[in-house]
Design a protein that fits this description.
Blueprint (H helix, E strand, L loop, with lengths): L8 E6 L1 H6 E11 L3 H8 L9 E5 L2 E5 L20 E4 L2 H12 L3 E11 L2 E11 L2 H24 L1
Antiparallel strand pairs: 1-6, 2-5, 2-7, 3-4, 4-5, 6-7
Length: 156
């Protein structure tokens, strides 16, 4: 297959639980610093960001608990699957994330992991945790929207 026929973005992992558990206030795209066999494992579509979160340490941002399983042909060069991985961001973006996480109740949650033009990218969301009644309200709103769409499509 010709290289230009390949889609420009390929989804590797998505954190579906994040939008259920958090109000996402803002999103930002970051590059990832990976080792060779991690990239090969990601290209096979293997990764989990369900338990992952990000922290700002000094002038750097790291993602923790992101699971990239060992590459099967990688033998002894495979790094730890849950190691701390650095995110690539501009200084102004790091400063903005630091200010956002200093506010009470805010955290950095990975939303999606994908490849764009050969580079691994991670979309981070600044999230504020939802209470159980907020979750119930979100579910009720989603169900109401779904019912309205069904009624609309049934009429036409």
């Amino acid at each position: 297959m010709p290289r230009d026929a390949e889609p420009s973005e390929r989804l590797v992992a998505q954190n579906r639980r994040a939008r259920h558990d958090y109000f996402i206030l803002e999103t930002i795209e970051a590059g990832l610093v990976l080792k060779g066999t991690e990239v090969k494992s990601l290209r096979q579509g293997k990764a989990s960001i369900a338990e992952a979160y990000a922290v700002v340490e000094g002038s750097e941002v790291f993602v923790l608990q992101m699971h990239i399983p060992p590459y099967e042909q990688g033998n002894r060069w495979n790094p730890d699957p849950l190691r701390k991985r650095k995110l690539l961001l501009h200084g102004a973006e790091i400063h903005k994330l630091r200010k956002a996480t200093e506010q009470k109740g805010n955290t950095l949650v990975p939303l999606t992991l994908y490849f764009r033009r050969g580079h691994a990218k991670l979309v981070l969301g600044v999230g504020r945790g939802k209470k159980s009644y907020d979750k119930r309200r979100s579910i009720a709103e989603r169900d109401a929207r779904r019912e309205m769409e069904r009624a609309r499509s049934a009429r036409s």
